[in-house]
Amino acid sequence: MKEIITTRTVNASPEHVFKAWTHPHYLALWWGPKDFRNTFHEFDLKPGGAWNFVMHGPNGVDYPNSSQFVEIKIPNRLVLNHISKPQFQIVVTFEEAGSQTKVTFRQIFPTKDEADKIRAFVTEANEQNMDRMEAVVAEMILDRSNRELIAHRMFDATPEEVYSAWTDSKQLSQWWGTNGLGLTTHSIDVKAGGLWRFLIHSADGTLYPNRVEYIEAVQPSLLSYVQGTDQEPEQFKTMVHLERVEGQTKVTMKVTFPTPQAFEAAKKSKSFENSRQTLDRLATFLAKKS
After folding, report:
1. Residue 108 phi, psi (nearest 5)
2. Do residues 160 and 41 make contact, with C-beta atoms less than 8 angstroms apart?
3. Using one digit for the tens of pLDDT, what is the confidence trace for 135-155?
4. pTM above 0.70, yes or no
5. How far apart are CA 116 and CA 1, in angstroms?
């Protein structure tokens, strides 16, 4: 047999599972075996479009990958050719199974010998891959309606420019925070597990130490981090997704609080209005740069 086949039934709709396979910021979170990370350089979801990325192994080795999309049938079928070695075709189907989805992942090689060369270790790696995919889908559909703020904003800038403004300390100091506040960065390391330590300066001279720990940093499409202080490091979690739309950038920002009570307290303290002001300042800063 020149195919390697892996199946998994996921407790979600085909639409949700298909999105996890085809939306770059979700896909980057889970693609690859356990403890691997990804850096996406190009992801053009259309027939003939390229998907170029680097997988970062837990041993410190980088694995460049290049694929080309062949067929996209939402939300039932995805076909692509893995161009870099070893070469094979990937066919993924998403079959509705009651309230669940059966995912069938096929790797089709030119010959049986080529498939057999990697079958032994790829079979387990694919199961780990499915485990990670299933965890991401579960996180996607989790109901956080009573503790999550979602904001959408269009910016007249590229995703690269917005991502840079959100990760470069010199640029952050010019827009981060609400009206009348200042910012001083002590250190910043934008990577999974990296920290950003900074002070917020109020108009009356009061200093507020802040701590951000990055969960994911996928340039230029995704930032995910938890924010707080050294005493209370996880006051809330923020996910920032950047999407290129007709020459502009659509930013979707999700702020998730640990409990409904923390969410209600944030509303009473005008935290949501402060977030709107911060995005307004970002828009002004980007407009001045252009």
Report:
1. -110, 115
2. no
3. 999 988 877 778 888 888 999
4. no
5. 8
